[in-house]
Amino acid sequence: MTFVPTSNAFKENATGALKDKPLQEALGIARQHSIQTRLNTVAKMPEFETLRDIGRDLKNHIIANLDHYLLQFEQSVIDRGGKVHWCPDGESARAKVLEICRSVNARTVTKGKTMIGEEIGINDFLFANGIEPVETDLGEYIIQLRGETPSHIIGPALHVTQAQVEETFREAHTDLDPARNLEDPASLMAEAREKLRAGFLKADVGITGANFLIADEGATTIVTNEGNGDLTQTLPRIHIVLASIEKVVPSLKDAMTLLRILARSATGQEQSVYTTFSSGPRRPTGLDGPEEFHVVLIDNGRSAYLGSDLEEMLRCIRCGACLDHCPVYHSVGGHAYGWVYSGPIGSLLTPMLIGVENAKPLPNASTLCGRCESVCPVRIPIPKLLRNWREREFSRAITPQTERSGLWFWAFMAKRPLLYRLVTRIGARALFNLAGQRGRLSSAPLASGWTKHRDLPATQGRTFQEQWKAKRGARS
Amino acid sequence: MTSQPGTAQPNPQELNKLGPISAGANVALFVTCLVDLFRPSVGFAAVKLLEEAGCRVSVPPSQTCCGQPAYNSGDRNTAVDIARQTIAAFEGFDFIVAPSGSCGGMIKHHYPQLLGDDAQWGPRAERLAARTFELTQFLAEQCGRTDFGAALSANCTYHDSCSSLREMKVKAAPRDLLKKVAGLTLTEMEETDACCGFGGTFCIKFPDVSNSMAARKVETIDATGADLLLAGDLGCLMNLAGKMKRDGSNVQVRHVAEVLAGMMDEPAIGEERS
Fold first, then answer.
1. Counting beta carbons within 10 angstroms of the beta carbon of residue A37, is it exposed (0 to 12), middle (13 to 18) or buried (19 or more)?
2. Is B58 within 8 Å of B28 (Cβ atoms)?
3. In this structure, what DSSP letter does residue A340 have?
4. Which residues in chain B have their CB less than 8 angstroms from residue A428's CB?
5. Domain shared by A16 and A138, yes or no
6. Which domain holds residue A48?
7. What is the CATH number of the domain that holds A235?
8. In a mutagenesis test of the A interface, which of B32, B50, B64 is the best target, namely the one with the most A β-carbons within 10 Å?
9. Residue in A453, A459, A475 nearest the CB of B38
10. Residue A208: inside a domain, yes or no?
């Protein structure tokens, strides 16, 4: 685990995030941009909805035959001269990466953007073991300099404003002219590029993630918009691919199918700028590529959910569309979720990866509005799965006692219509009288959560059932 | 289509194929717990509209709530108990209509899921689901009626509740009905598909986040210049009215049924009594 999760403090984190002005500014810009760009691109593709069905069915097929495709992938990688390392958890994956780095006395490691790398905390681990990890993705580089974690699956520095990036660069790049002009975003990019070039050349090992593992080809795929991933995986002597088990796809054709919905859902692009395939180490007659090619295949608790009521979350292809369309994410950003993954999919994955007892509020931090499901490229029924987590919390008595008591009391009445009608009749009168002429209440007993930010509209004095019985009682 | 309560039900496939219903259909109103407690005038507006459309309206007295508070809190057993209670109360009618996409969605989509493994109750849930509709959807699409002769001089904007829009697929119906209200103009807000922050118990568990969502929704409402906010779900309406009144807004907030039925005697939601 890369850092102590604060997911159980979601509510407090969220309240802090709502008061964070630069964060709110960054979230506002991202929200408007991401929704519109996806809409524009999808509108140009009449078969997009059909592709989502195909994507869903494909991922379901893979999950049902995961063992088969993973073994096929391993054999194909071996046939290409690479190695596959099966790691049940983060600890074994970290140890394997360190072992490979030490085998070549690596001092510096360049990294492409990898969420599984964040998940297993590879950066801090390498650093603690005397190896310097250098992030090469611009967003990852920015947050690495700031000592932060990603706040979005595909836009790790989404929470940072341009002014903050400038500030960070001035603090970090003290060897450059303090009077240089960094007002233009392009100048910030150029400066990062300049700094990163040196890193590429001195790195002994390059670590990337993988968007897909192609079983029949023994190849791995990454998509980037900066080309940093290509340099990360071709320049150093050793290329390590970190990937979780559900990333495998049967064939190149299947990878292409998912690529068509991935970029459109993620960034609203028809295709990412770079789509890179890696298939094994440099051939004896080849001129470039790494000397060694390792795939570190990580389970980290996923296989325990195969065949469960939460299995469908393993379809996720990490596009981030659910974050981009989530009104809760729009309000609080990614860090409030307290661990690596955020937004609706984070609220599903985090309880799986760190234990639901360490992420209690996350499945509840949603209105179940369903906008995430309406844009998910592989049609993960996110609200349904969030509810499944809530059911697990309820059955394990993780749900807070006050909530359980409130529910019990409400259920007791709701299951007894006569009693219910009596209590609501009393309630309707009480709220009507309390509100008086004003027609609403600024505070009410047991309603502080409601009245903290809103008034409570009054009742009309008598319940519908009471009035209906008086008017038409004889008829029904 | 005028079977009496308790008689054998037509199968759901046949019902789905039906066009506009014939006069005299037996419709049971699912009042919803919020309308029952907070705004009975919405229930009476719904009854008036349904009767004008030629339906015979009943209100089963043994209804309480659709069970969402339990279902969405993870208390599946209670949700199942309440689903059975509701099915038993409503299955004798030709149609079940709710002035809410949220409660309608619970009955139509979630009851069959909750009871899917139950050999006895599963099919009963399916049969009920096939005959359950949100009010405006039922009027416009099942009854084929959009003009109820209402008139109101106002500039309104319409909020799509998430469950109406995404579970019940209600989008055109309320707009088609509002077009026929003489003197009324409808100005659409931006991001009509964004949640208002209500979310049932969500708004009480996470008041600050909910408030931020409501504030964003209110911004888009204000940007339309509308003086009247309408929606088909009282949960959203109470949330937004509560927020807007707290912040001193002059926009009036009402359930769409009140306008369509021309029943505007009660003060708007959260408004002073004169």
1. middle
2. yes
3. S
4. 37-38
5. yes
6. 7-303
7. 3.40.50.10420
8. B64
9. A459
10. yes
Structure token pair of residue A382: 């996110």
Beta bridge partners of B229: B157, B253
Q: Which residues of B touch A9 (CB under 8 A)?
A: none
Q: Is B61 on the interface with A (CB under 8 A)?
A: yes
- Determine, yes or no, domain membership for A111: yes
Of A366, A399, A424, the CB nearest to B73: A399
> CA-to-CA distance for B259 and B181, rounded, in angstroms?
8
Domain stop point among A261, A285, A303? A303
Does the model's pTM come out above 0.80?
yes
The total number of structural domains in chain A stands at 2
Task: List, for residues A131-182, the tens digit of each pLDDT value.
Answer: 999 999 899 999 999 999 999 999 999 999 999 999 999 999 999 999 999 9
Q: Which helix (H) or strand (E) holds B234?
A: helix B234-246
Residues A417 and A291 in one domain: no
The phi, psi pair for A159, rounded to 5°, reads -80, -5
Report the distance separating Cα A4 and Cα A305, nearest Å: 23
Same domain, A419 and A296: no
CB B112 within 8 A of CB B129: yes
Both A296 and A412 in a single domain? no
A445 falls within a domain: yes
| A403 neighbourhood in chain B, CB within 8 Å | 73, 201, 205
Supply the ipTM of this predicted assembly: 0.94
Q: Which residues of B touch A330 (CB under 8 A)?
A: 213, 216
In a domain, A466, yes or no: yes
Cα separation, A302 vs A349, whole angstroms: 9
Which B residues 249-268 touch A at CB under 8 Å? 266-267
Going through B72-117 in order, the beta strands assigned E by DSSP cover 95-98
In tens, the pLDDT along A355-376 reads 999 999 999 999 999 999 999 9
Three-state SS at B220: helix
Q: Which domains does chain B have, with CATH numbers?
A: 12-141 (1.20.1050), 146-260 (3.40.50.11810)
Residue that terminates a domain, selected from A303, A331, A352: A303
Question: Which of B167, B199, B246 lies nearest to residue A367, judging by beta carbons?
Answer: B199
Say whether B67 and A469 touch across the interface (CB within 8 A). Answer: no
Q: State whether A41 and A173 are in the same domain.
A: yes
Tell me, yes or no, whether A138 and A16 share the same domain.
yes
Structure tokens at B120: 């006895």
